[in-house]
Amino acid sequence: MKHLPGATLLAVLLSGATATVATAATRIVVALPADIRSSSPGVNRDDNTDSVMLNVVEGLVGYGEGGDVKPLLAKSVETSADGLTYTFRLRSDVRFHNGDKLSAADVLWSWNRYMDPKTEWRCLAEFDGRNDLKVLKVETPDPLTFVMRINRRSALFLDTLARTDCGMTAILSKASVKPDGTWDRPIGTGPFEFSDWKRGRGLTLSRFAGYKSPEGAKADGYVGLKAPNVDVVQLQVIPDPATVKLGMASKSVDIAQLLSSDVVEVKNDPSLVTTSESDSSKHALLFQTKDPLMADVKFRRAVAAALDYRQLVDVASDGLSKPNNSAVFERSVYSDAVQRKGFKTDLNQAKALLKESSYRGQTVKLIANKRSPMPSFQVALVTQAMLQAIGIKVEIEVLEWATQLDRYTRATTR
Predict the structure, then answer these.
(1) Which of helix, strand or coil describes residue 353?
(2) Would you tell me which of 12, 137, 169, 196 could form a disulfide with 204, CB atoms 3.0–4.6 Å apart?
(3) What top-level class would CATH report for the domain 61-175?
(4) Residues paired with 367 in a beta bridge
(5) What residues have CB less than 8 Å from 339, skipping those under 6 apart?
(6) Beta carbons of 297 and 305 less than 8 angstroms apart
């Protein structure tokens, strides 16, 4: 058994990057806490969906273990002196799951599909100018070269292409869509093929015999050695943690993501192997700053000063984790002393800032969900108590996860 948090669950475990999965196995069963939302990369997605789909598809670039961006389907990336032109030299050994060889024409087709508003790609606004950056031109000077020109220098251009919530800007075969242009299924270049999906019940991934990791690759996040270790992966939707534990005990489930509260019990079972890994997933309290009160910096600072981060993390992880107030995860190559500094709890400062803010006793709504194994509701309860301690009235609204995500997506993409 394995326990890995967040989106690393599948992409790490099913590939050659993790030697503890027996290579002699031909079939494994993985428990998913929820069904995937879509099979189209970066479209109608969540972290659970990404963790599955990034075994099937790949992009020109991806994240290494330390969070730095490296070539994947591209063997190299060249940036012009003015920082406006990116030239991707494609690997010549890559094939799609249908046997076709990867070419620059496939990259161009995939890019044009993402940039079509009808696709509803999550990251369209990152590249069409709405968020200031715009891809002005794309070209295919030869079958193994793809060129992109942007409107301004950007330190995050490649990083955004690699983002997991963007589906890694995956390069797909044209056969992924039906003759009428509507989505069918992902035909990608990843170590596993998308074989079958029974909505609400689960899906099946099959080993892609023609998969090749980058030449000379070693295990390195999404961009290193990823040779598939098993022939068939059966992903079963099991939202109830108690049922997951029963499946583990009966050996009907091989890999599962556990509640942190179950870790101690499971560690005492000699027949199971439990690992706990840090990753770049973020558990955060988000402010809807279109609201006048939430747009008030002093109010937000009051909230930040009122929170006991050690206690919040203990509740969220049953004492298995430690606070990280930075958006940069601790194993990142970009983590340094500044990132580790963090916030300090100061109730006196919190109360003073609250008095100076525009808060006038109105009730603040905190939206949470009870999706297993995420600690959203538990954290909401503790946060409510901490904010009430400085005089903020807080009401918790519990939503079903899909409803909460849809509401968030609508609010952030308008």
Answers:
(1) helix
(2) 196
(3) alpha beta
(4) 397
(5) 326, 328
(6) no
> Is the four-CA dihedral 218, 219, 223, 227 of positive or negative sign?
positive
Distance, CA of 174 to CA of 404 (rounded, Å) = 33
- The pLDDT score that the predictor gives to residue 23 is 43
Backbone angles phi, psi at 88, to 5 degrees: -105, 115
Please provide residue 263's backbone torsions phi and psi, each rounded to the nearest 5 degrees. -60, -45
Nearest of 16, 2, 3, 47 to residue 191 by alpha carbon:
16
What is d(CA 229, CA 344) in angstroms, rounded to the nearest whole number? 45
Q: What is the CA radius of gyration of the chain?
A: 22
- Beta strands at 393-398 and 69-71: parallel, antiparallel or unpaired: unpaired
Domain-wise residue ranges, the chain = 8-56+189-267, 61-175, 297-413
Nearest one of 219, 283, 222, 317 to 10, comparing CA atoms: 222
Its pTM stands at 0.77
Q: Are 90 and 107 in contact (CB under 8 A)?
A: yes
Handedness of CA 19, 12, 376, 238 (dihedral sign): negative
Query: In this structure, what token pair is assigned to residue 282?
Result: 């973020």
CA 122 to chain centroid: 12
Beta bridge partners of 203: 197, 235
Which pairs count as long-range contacts for 100-104, CB under 8 Å and 24+ apart, including other chains? Answer: 100/173, 100/175, 102/73, 102/171, 102/189, 103/143, 103/144, 104/140, 104/141, 104/142, 104/143, 104/144, 104/145, 104/146
Summarised one tens digit per residue, pLDDT across range 106-141 is 999 999 999 999 999 999 999 999 999 999 999 999
C-alpha angle with apex 207: 203 to 210, nearest 5 degrees? 140
- The answer to whether 12 and 191 have CB atoms below 8 angstroms apart is no
Query: Of how many residues is the chain composed?
Result: 414
CATH of region 8-56+189-267: 3.40.190.10
Give the type of residue at 412.
T
pLDDT at residue 278 in the model: 66
- Are 128 and 160 contacting, i.e. CB atoms less than 8 angstroms apart? no
pLDDT at 406: 85
Residue 281, token pair as written in the block: 């997933």
Q: Are residues 1 and 276 in contact, defined by beta-carbon separation less than 8 angstroms?
A: no
Query: 297-413 has which CATH code?
Result: 3.10.105.10
Regions in the chain scoring below 70 on pLDDT:
1-25, 277-281, 412-414
